[in-house]
Amino acid sequence: MLFCVKIALLDSNFFKMNGFLGEFEATLDAKGRFLLPAGFKKQLVENAMNQFVINRGFERCLSLFAMNEWNPIFDKLKLLNDFDPKVREFKRYYLAGATFVELDSAGRLLVPGNLVEFAELGKDIVLAANTNKIEIWDKNKYKQLFDPFSADKYSELARQVMTGDNFTPIH
User: Is residue 33 within 8 Å of 109, Cβ to Cβ?
Assistant: First the structure.
């Protein structure tokens, strides 16, 4: 008896996540540039082509989106009703300072001065994954987020978020 086995080669993106994981320290140089950590570079899908959008985040940090993550968000923003004052207010705040950035030949990204000022970034920064984006924090401010956070507080927060209206189980 003869058997035929077909072997399919997997696309290299098969093993890439749809988002980011990890936390890395970096340094801002005098011009406001930092080296994108290799740990994040490895997680980029090939079609991201080293192009990003950086903008103001929540809690005075910055949000860095690969273009493949930014485009769907921007498409949703375009569909919001500009006749609603809350929509206009949100779009102004959310898009204020949003800037297209590309990796330079040395693998660095330039953070615009107005965004460095907004996030109060010092020389030492932390890049922390947050699903579809990377948050950029001043190292001291980032550390302060976790200083008062006990195991009990973490457990209670997880219970509230993962069992409430925010959570839809995956089947």
Answer: yes
Whole domain around residue 30: which residue ranges?
26-148
* 126 phi and psi angles, rounded to 5 deg: -125, 135
- Please name the residues in contact with 55: beta carbons below 8 A apart, sequence gap of 6 or more: 62, 63, 65, 94, 95, 96, 97, 98, 99, 115
Averaged in consecutive runs of 10 residues, what is the pLDDT profile of the chain (171 residues)?
47 56 93 88 73 93 93 96 96 94 94 96 95 94 88 87 70 50
Q: Considering the domain boundaries, does residue 136 fall inside one? A: yes
The number of domains in the chain is: 1
CA 162 to chain centre: 21
Give the number of C-alpha atoms closer than 13 A to the C-alpha of residue 106, restricted to the C-beta side. 7
End-to-end alpha carbon distance in the chain: 40
Give the CATH number, domain containing residue 48.
3.40.1550.20
The answer as to whether 56 is a domain residue is yes
